[in-house]
Amino acid sequence: MNFLNDMLQIIAWVSILLGSVLVIIGALGSLRFPDFWSRLHAASVTDSGGVILLLVGMGIHSGFNLITFKLFLIGVFLFITGPTSSHAVANAALVSGIKPTKKKQKISGNDG
Amino acid sequence: MLRSILTAIFLFLLWYLMSGIDKTLTLGLGVGSSIFAVWIVRRMENASEYDSLKVHLHPIELFKYCIWFLLEIFKSNWTVTKVILSPKMGINQNMFKVPFSQKSDLGQTIFANSITLTPGTISVEVEEDHFLVHALTFLPTDHEALAEMNNRISKIEGNVTS
Amino acid sequence: MIGTMPHLVFLIALILLFIAMILVLIRLYKGPTLYDRVLSTNSFGTHTVLFIGVLGFLSGRPDFLDIALLYALINFVATIAILKFFRYRAIGDVLIKRESKK
Predict the structure, then answer these.
(1) How sure is the predictor about A1, in pLDDT bands with cuts at 50, 70 and 90?
(2) What pLDDT, on a 0 to 100 scale, did the predictor assign at position B58?
(3) Contacts of A30 in chain C (CB under 8 A)
(4) Of B84, B150, B96, whose CA–CA distance to A27 is shortest?
(5) Listed range (A99-108, B8-17, B146-155, C71-80) with the worst mean pLDDT
(6) Domain range spanning residue A73?
(7) pLDDT digits (tens, 9 = 90+) for A15-70
(8) Averaged over B16-22, what is the pLDDT?
(9) Domain assignments of chain B as residue spans, ordered by start
(10) Assigned domain for C35 exists
(11) Contact predicate B107/B157, CB 8 Å
């Protein structure tokens, strides 16, 4: 039992550390990428992987109680609102006329 | 009516779990505010002329989809991480159309949000029967991957009644 | 050893999150277009939510999570409000019609 508990704690730590590394990678990407459309993708690394790993890590660390429920609720909110605001920014940029880079752009027909 | 009562009970449970206090006054305020919220929502539903399609999501399919989707997220996280950390970033941006086959608004929302939540692809615009999707590292296999996601979400969405 | 370990882990996570927030702030300052700035504001908000959560665990008071939850909601509303304002020049009721595609 004690061994299992330690095992869970170690999983929680690894998950938290990995999550913060993903968050910092996302921030680094949003600094390094050359144009707006690619920065959009860097932000979504933070929004998906970083949030999942950090919240799961904190949830395992706290055991199973009201705190876990609150973490779950934060996760659900971030999962619904994160993509929605990403989409809103992308759509507003498209409407306002910021075009993706011309190099490889082809709005192809129905080849999907 | 049953739906309203269930919503009120759900809201009250949410209140109780968020506060964690079981004094009579707090619980009473919780009951009052959840009934008030449900009443407002009912009024708003009567006032709006927009009626949406009713869908029942399959719980088992939804669960299977969640597992699959988590794996997808970590795979594409790894892809985007490699792109960010490589000194010469191999970006191959592309904007392409992805057709969807969901009939209800909820199904389409789930599909669009799933596309955006996966790092590397973002849904930019909704048209009549397809999304406009922007990809960071575009490969021709992306069409098949997104078509598979579309099929899985269509499976979640059961029979649609208006 | 296993008693002090969580402290260290949360401290490292807090420092990494802090560095990430500073990087996002640099993008907020440099961002050539408005949409870069809105994007980094939104991303800064997500970082703040995680930061508050980790800080709560580090200081042993996970009640901070309530604040984080509230912050997540406000952050979403703020992003949408900013975008709506710059698209329609009004926060209140606007006659929303689809822009013509080019």
Answers:
(1) low
(2) 81
(3) 23-24, 27, 39-40, 43
(4) B84
(5) A99-108
(6) 2-96
(7) 999 999 999 998 988 888 888 888 888 888 888 888 999 999 988 888 878 888 88
(8) 82
(9) 2-47, 59-156
(10) yes
(11) yes
Q: Which of A16, A71, A73 sits opposite C9 (nearest CB)?
A: A16
**Residue C52 at interface with chain A, using a CB cutoff of 8 Å:** no
% pLDDT > 70, chain B:
93
Q: Domain limits at C25?
A: 5-88
Q: Structural domain tally of chain C? A: 1
Query: Whose structure tokens read 């008693």?
Result: C3
Residue C71 lies in a domain: yes
**The pair of three-digit structure tokens given for residue A92, joined into one six-digit string:** 């507003």
Alpha carbon distance C47, C53 (integer Å): 10
The residues, ordered by sequence, that sit 6+ positions from A29 with a Cβ below 8 Å of its Cβ are A39, A41, A42, A45, B80, B83, B84
pLDDT at residue A109 in the model:
40
Residue C53 lies in a domain: yes
Does ipTM top 0.95?
no
Is the residue at A104 inside a domain? no
- Partner-chain contact C9 A78, CB within 8 Å: no
Could you tell me the CA-to-CA distances from A6 to A13, A96, B17, C79, C88 in Å, in that order? 11, 53, 28, 41, 55
B52's tokens: 């949406």
How far apart, in whole angstroms, are the C-alpha atoms of residue B150 and residue A112?
12
The residue among B13, C2, B20 whose CA lies nearest residue A65 is B20
Q: B45 vs B107, B109, B113, CA distance in Å? A: 21, 20, 25
Any domain includes A107: no
In chain A, residues with a C-beta closer than 8 Å to the C-beta of B95 are: 100, 105, 107
Res B160: pLDDT = 63
Hey, are the CB atoms on A85 and C66 less than 8 Å from each other? Answer: no
Between chains, do B97 and A28 touch, taking CB under 8 Å as contact? Answer: no
Q: In chain C, which residues have their Cβ closer than 8 Å to the Cβ of A51?
A: 46, 50
Which residue from A minimizes the CA distance to B89?
Answer: A33
Question: Hey, are the CB atoms on A41 and B116 less than 8 Å from each other?
Answer: no
Tell whether A98 lies on the interface with C, counting CB pairs under 8 A. yes
Residue pointed to by tokens 């973490």:
A71
Contact B98 A112 (CB under 8 A): yes
* pTM of the model as a whole: 0.85
The total number of structural domains that make up chain A: 1
Contact at CB, A112 and B77, closer than 8 angstroms: no
